[in-house]
Amino acid sequence: MLYVGTFERTGKVKRLRRDGRARVAPCDARGRATGPWLETRARVLAESAPEAERAEGLLRRKYGPIKRLVDWWYRRTYGAPVVIAIAV
Prior knowledge:
By secondary structure, the protein is of the alpha+beta class.
């Protein structure tokens, strides 16, 4: 399982709630694909789901105070942070 953090009013969340199909590929720091695309399924996790809490904890541990700052800043425009689970 691959977990991705984003915000509730982004286009990717709206698309996944409508249709759980997703495509993923390995990429560089600029988002350019460096390998083949993989067709998969993804879902937006409920905030209270154990998976979401674990993923948020890992992101907080990795990014520290920067994550809190980014979450605070983007929440104003894009809503609350959410976690997307992608089956790979």
